[in-house]
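Subject: design request, 174 residues
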């Protein structure tokens, strides 16, 4: 039986004092700029690299950190205990007003609709067996069914209503 892979430990070795000595964070734009030059980087330059998954990674003291986690440390002085959720779902929007603490489940509730979705509506799926649109909303690993509909707009309304009801402030309906 394959063993479950452990999540890599969250790096918490950087202190807020060390971070503020190297970088400046603008909470209005969500951008970090370098305070010191070195290793081919210039002071005043925007720090970080956008990766394939859309997150910004910043190297500080020879280690890579996620910019949204650095933003939390910079503003609040402590590392976030768990996940940081991007409220608007845009992974490189690191404005402090767009970041909130979340559990793994809450963070998952705020995911966008999958690009492979036929409906392009979160919670609405095509059911080949019935030839109708099916509405399912998942919470904490349990899928809740809300019927099948001939009209995709009706299915979308039901999915949006039930997603908001079940996911609360972490609901994402688009």
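Subject: RE: design request

Done. Sequence follows.
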């Amino acid at each position: 039986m394959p063993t479950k892979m452990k999540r890599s430990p969250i790096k918490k070795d950087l202190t807020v004092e060390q971070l503020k000595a190297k970088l400046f964070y603008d909470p209005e734009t969500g951008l970090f700029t370098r305070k010191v030059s070195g290793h081919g980087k210039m002071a005043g330059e925007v720090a970080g690299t956008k990766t394939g998954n859309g997150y910004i990674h910043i190297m500080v003291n020879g280690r890579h950190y996620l910019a949204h986690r650095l933003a939390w440390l910079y503003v609040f002085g402590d590392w976030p205990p768990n996940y940081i959720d991007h409220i608007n779902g845009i992974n490189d929007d690191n404005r402090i007003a767009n970041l909130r603490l979340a559990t793994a489940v809450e963070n998952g509730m705020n995911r966008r609709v999958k690009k492979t979705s036929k409906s392009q509506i979160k919670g609405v799926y095509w059911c080949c067996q019935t030839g109708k649109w099916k509405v399912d909303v998942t919470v904490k690993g349990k899928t809740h069914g809300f019927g099948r509909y001939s009209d995709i707009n009706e299915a979308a309304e039901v999915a949006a209503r039930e997603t908001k009801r079940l996911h609360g402030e972490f609901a994402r309906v688009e």
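Residues 1-9 have pLDDT under 50 and may be disordered.
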